[in-house]
Design a protein that fits this description.
Strand order of the largest sheet: 2-5-1-6-7
Low-confidence stretches: none
Helix content: 40-55%
Number of strands: 9
Number of domains: 2
Mean pLDDT: 86
């Protein structure tokens, strides 16, 4: 399906900002349809309440179990493949007609544990589509993710007590905990690892690093336009400030302001090979440079979330 392409990234890797720019400055419509992943279940919403989430391929599989296509002379597997293929075509047609654009870019941020299914189903159902991978340093991704999920799954942690409850007697010595880093570093590294395996058989490999896009946005735009075959409108430009990482309107400081040595040890064990493969680090010496503990003083005000903290 030559009209459909994919932008694949871990959540909080800059895909949302890039998608917004493309929507406004090209003839490409960006969607977030959750086509693939075989995911179905409860997922924390923005306010922490559990919400039902379902990917289209999971819904089609459930439908195939109820109606195996016996009246169409199709076995269950054939029925499922044909139904999914037709559904994708209908979704693409609907969005292109509604937007008036000529191509669709589906933004994909895989749920934990679903990356392999996502990549496999893109190749199965959309073999002509281009896959663009956007990768951001996993340590920055985890910082952004931890802040975004403060009200979703952080209750009972020191970071929740410090930033949300603002306990006046609490001096924060560690922002993360082992469980959080193990879970989400594995999620980040899984997406990047599978993408790198795919890169070896793709010609050419389409990879954008968030940090390179921040440093030289013009080059990133040129690369994107050559991949997706669009022309930048006269007067349109892309600025580094458009991709500056923010949380609740505040510019986010770098990951080193949040990590202590224990965090580095856990992250290195889970995803250190990916950091090195993506040229973020060489070896594990970065862990030795981390402090034993943070020196965040007790919160005495009700100001902005990160206001007044000793960031570098």
């Amino acid at each position: 399906m030559s009209q459909l392409h994919f932008l694949i990234a871990a959540e909080n890797s800059g895909a949302e900002r890039l998608a917004r720019w493309l929507n406004e400055n090209s003839d490409i419509t960006v969607t977030d349809s959750h086509l693939f992943g075989q995911f179905g279940g409860l997922w924390p919403g923005r306010e922490g309440k559990l919400e039902s989430q379902l990917t289209w391929d999971r819904m089609v599989r459930a439908q195939a179990k109820r109606n195996s296509g016996r009246f169409l002379d199709l076995d269950r597997a054939s029925y499922q493949r044909k139904l999914m293929a037709n559904l994708i075509g209908s979704i693409v047609e609907f969005h292109l007609k509604a937007s008036g654009d000529s191509r669709l870019l589906e933004k994909v941020c895989p749920y934990p544990g679903t990356s392999r299914i996502v990549f496999a189903n893109i190749r199965r159902y959309c073999p002509e589509s281009t896959m663009i991978r956007l990768v951001r340093d996993g340590r920055d991704v985890l910082v952004h993710h931890a802040l975004a999920w403060l009200t979703r799954d952080a209750q009972g942690t020191d970071r929740y007590s410090y930033l949300i409850e603002r306990r006046p007697d609490l001096e924060l010595g560690r922002f993360f905990d082992d469980h959080f880093i193990e879970r989400w570093a594995l999620w980040w590294s899984e997406i990047v690892r599978l993408g790198r395996k795919l890169q070896k058989i793709e010609d050419p490999p389409f990879l954008l690093r968030y940090e390179d896009l921040m440093r030289e946005p013009g080059n990133g735009l040129e690369q994107l336009s050559s991949i997706l075959k669009f022309e930048v409108p006269i007067g349109a430009e892309i600025k580094a400030s458009q991709f500056q990482p923010r949380f609740q309107g505040q510019v986010l400081p770098g990951w080193s302001n949040f990590f202590v040595r224990r965090d580095g040890e856990v992250f290195q064990r889970v995803a250190g090979d990916v950091l090195e493969a993506m040229n973020y680090e060489v070896g594990d010496r970065w862990v030795d440079d981390l402090p034993e503990k943070l020196s965040w003083p007790p919160r005495c005000s009700q100001g902005e979330l990160l206001e007044g903290l000793p960031f570098v």
